[in-house]
Amino acid sequence: MSILDKIRVVLVNTSHPGNIGSTARAMKTMGLSQLVLVDPLQFPHALATGLASNADDILTRAQVVDSLDQALVGCGLVLGTSARVRSLSWEVLTPEQAVKQALARAAGQEDVAIVFGREDSGLTNSELQKCHAHICIPANPIYNVLNLAQAVQIICYEFHKATLTEEIFPVFEEELATHQDVEQLYIHIRKALERLGFHDPEHSKQLMPRVKRMFARIRLEKREVTILRGALKAILLNERRKKS
Q1: CA distances from residue 12 to 26, 64, 122, 149 in whole angstroms, order as listed
Q2: Residue-level pLDDT at 171
Q3: How many whole angstroms separate alpha carbon 153 and alpha carbon 29?
Q4: Which residues contact 52 (CB under 8 A, 6 or more apart)?
Q5: CA–CA distance, 3 with 156 (Å, rounded to integer)
Q6: Spelled out in words, what is the top-level CATH class assigned to the domain 179-243?
Q7: End-to-end C-alpha distance for the chain, whole angstroms
Q8: In the prediction, which pLDDT does 72 show?
Q9: How far apart are CA 104 and CA 92, in angstroms?
């Protein structure tokens, strides 16, 4: 079982079925699978299935309940999303902070609920008071209106990012060029530039130091040095043919 299986996405009183489908898609792309719908106005619905875009298995398994209390049964941590400052002070977390807390609790085999409110008005104060802390997604203060599914996607991405491993993005380390490899490249470059008439060692003493400084700024791989020296060899061979 994945640790993300302990994370429950709860949508409260969703009015547009398309947002439910888009939420399912957002969840599946980031590895979350537990969706709970509190008194949705229209579900199931063809629009939800269409916008789920092959994440309809999330919709099929979605639990539909009548109240938020039912949706939170068994949860050890409840975090509610809110874009507004409420009159009653409550702990407010960034998405990163919230995910860190949620995964710590999930690692201890506790179920965690992330609660999202209505499209037009979010969660009520009484609903937010059922949460241990609130999540606020930083946005443009002049216009901080996020679509419901967009907000879900941001939170789900933070969960996925926090659980990434090196195996997901394997690092392909090429063999780096040695000091001797690079010095031989410099010799080859100098010979080519002299043969082409571009470099006169008697009058342009700063050219090769600048070339070396340029290459010193990057980590040359052995294969890259081989490619460059092969190109230089071809250039010099072509010059010989022109002169013969």
Answers
A1: 17, 10, 8, 13
A2: 59
A3: 9
A4: 21, 22, 24, 25, 58, 59
A5: 13
A6: mainly alpha
A7: 72
A8: 96
A9: 17
Residue numbers in the chain where pLDDT is lower than 50: none
Question: Where does the chain hold its CATH 3.40.1280.10 domain(s)?
Answer: 3-162
DSSP 198: S
Q: Which amino acid is residue 199, in one-letter code?
A: H
Model pLDDT, residue 17: 97
Q: Which two tokens stand for residue 40?
A: 């949705």
Distances (CA, A) of 76 to 71, 99, 130: 12, 14, 12
Q: How far apart are CA 29 and CA 24, in angstroms?
A: 9
Q: Which residue has the tokens 């010799």?
A: 187
Concatenated DSSP letters of 216-243: HTS--BHHHHHHHHHHHHHHHHHHHHHH
CATH superfamily of 3-162: SPOUT methyltransferase, trefoil knot domain (3.40.1280.10)
Q: How far is CA 121 from CA 61, 81, 231, in A?
A: 27, 12, 64
Q: Concatenate the DSSP letters of all residues of 35-93 into one string.
A: EEEES-SS-S-HHHHHHHSS-HHHHHH-EEESSHHHHTTTEEEEEEE-SS--SS---EE
pTM here?
Answer: 0.73
Q: Give the residue from 141, 157, 160 showing the smallest Cα distance to 149.
A: 157
- pLDDT score at 166: 52
Hey, what amino acid is at 184? Q
CB 49, CB 153: distance < 8 Å = no
